[in-house]
Amino acid sequence: KWAFEPDPIKAAHMMIAHIDKKRQALGLDKARERVLFDMAMRRALD
To answer: I need a surface site. Which of 1, 9, 12, 17 has the fewest CB within 10 A?
Structure first.
């Protein structure tokens, strides 16, 4: 699907909406808790 928008602000909004739609389709739109791993935690992963 192709789209053209001469206004750069509207074009940016279209791109962001498209990216958000693809993220939602992949299940990447949910926020996850981020954990900072120290060296001991990294070694425990192996």
So the answer is: 1
Which own/partner pairs from 38-45 qualify as long-range (CB within 8 Å, at least 24 positions apart)?
none
Q: What is the pLDDT of residues 16-44, one digit of tens each?
A: 999 999 999 998 888 888 899 999 999 99
Looking at this protein, which amino acid is placed at residue 13? H
pLDDT of 10 above 90: yes
User: In Å, what is the CA distance from 17 to each residue of 8, 24, 25, 36?
Assistant: 14, 11, 12, 30
Other beta carbons within 10 angstroms of residue 14's beta carbon come to 14
Q: What is the pLDDT of residue 39?
A: 94
Asked whether residue 3 is domain-assigned, the answer is: no
